[in-house]
Amino acid sequence: MDGRTEVVSGETARRPRRGRWWLIALATSVVVVATGIVFALRTPSPVGHWDSAAGRDRFVRAYAAAFADLPVPQRTIDVRTDFGVVRVYRFAGSGDASAPLVLLPGRASASPVWADNLPSLLRVGDVYTVDLLGEPGMSVQDRPIGDDGDQARWLHQTLDGLPEDRFHLVGLSIGGWTAVNLAVRQPELIATLTVIDPVYVFADMPIGTILRSLPAALPWLPKSWRDGFNSWTAGGAPVEDVPVADMIEAGMRHYTLRLPQPTRIGPDALTGLDMPVLAVIAGNSVMHDGHAAATAERVLPDGTVRLYPGASHAVNGEHPDEIAADIAGFLRQAR
């Protein structure tokens, strides 16, 4: 791999796919809300939790409705870790990837947000989706996650609890940070690493994005405030009332996060990565500055960088087939 940045252009880059793509931004944009104000308003509980049984029931109904848009999973697996039980779904693919793909979603989201991506990714190989521990979803946190090391440990234990011994890790937004955080600390089970517009990896988050995110962190404010911010992160796309949106809204409204603020992963740690890395960067993302692609090209020793001009932070939903093709080509080169 030559480490050069490849700019995705042409008809597919100029015409984003319509559909549920903006929901990915809705799921991932609230990564920025871990501020001092929010922490001060949280309950004393040391783990993520629902505000009430009724709130959780509402989320579970919305989750089930959104999950109906996914292919039928081959298996549903609950993996016990030191920090709680992690829900994993396995989907049987038709491709010949050397190891399964493991998909990590963005903040305040869960497996159903991959609905647009799974059809094309399953042509690459078998796929696992993970509901992040400490986030709204079917995973259940029962011990505090205190730092970045704990974040790596629960994910490593999850992968270690699956039948295979190597995985192609794919992370979106905060899921991208979660994947890289594991790769720099406990890389033994990672064959390759793909990050899709990750936060806190190649650039800091702009202060304007942090300030505009505050309404999304306060569940008692009107839903329209959160919708406005999430539409902004998705390049101005309208927010529609569909099952995935209902699930995300229910999670944001009724689930309290008790996770540490992610630490920016520095250049020295990225330079030390010893597995092939694919970095997909959205040209118009509001989650990082305009230098993220150049930074990725500079610091990744075995990196392939794909820049999507005009794409928002919802790039994986705007261009699901193109990104699946990127991943397929990347995995072929990595063999």
Written overview of the protein:
The chain is an alpha/beta fold and 335 residues long. The protein has one domain (5-329): Rossmann fold. Helices cover 37% and strands 17% of the residues. The chain is built from 14 helices and 12 strands. It has helices at residues 11-14, 21-28, 36-41, 53-67, 118-121, 148-160, 174-185, 207-213, 223-233, 243-254, 267-271, 292-299, 315-318, 320-334; strands at 5-7, 49-50, 75-81, 84-91, 101-104, 127-130, 140-141, 167-172, 190-196, 255-256, 277-282, 303-308. Strands 1, 3, 4, 5, 6, 7, 8, 9, 11 and 12 form a 10-stranded mixed sheet that branches. The longest helix has 15 residues, at 53-67. It starts with a strand and ends with a helix. GO terms for molecular function: hydrolase activity. This is Alpha/beta hydrolase. Keywords: Hydrolase, Membrane, Transmembrane, Transmembrane helix. The chain crosses the membrane at residues 21-41.
Query: Span from first to last CA?
Result: 11 Å
At the fourth level of CATH, the homologous superfamily is Alpha/Beta hydrolase fold, catalytic domain
Radius of gyration over C-alpha positions, nearest whole angstrom: 18 Å
- General shape: globular
N-to-C SSE string, H for helix and E for strand:
EHHHEHEEEHEEHEHEHHHEHEHEHH
Number of domains: 1
**Which architecture does the CATH hierarchy give at level 2?**
3-Layer(aba) Sandwich
Under the CATH scheme, which class? Alpha Beta
Number of helices: 14
Low-confidence stretches: 9-18, 21-42
Beta-sheet strand percentage? 15-25%
Major sheet, described briefly?
10 strands, mixed
Rounded mean pLDDT is 84
- Determine the CATH topology: Rossmann fold
**DSSP E strands, number:** 12
Structural class from helices and strands? Answer: alpha/beta
Percent helix, as a range, is 25-40%
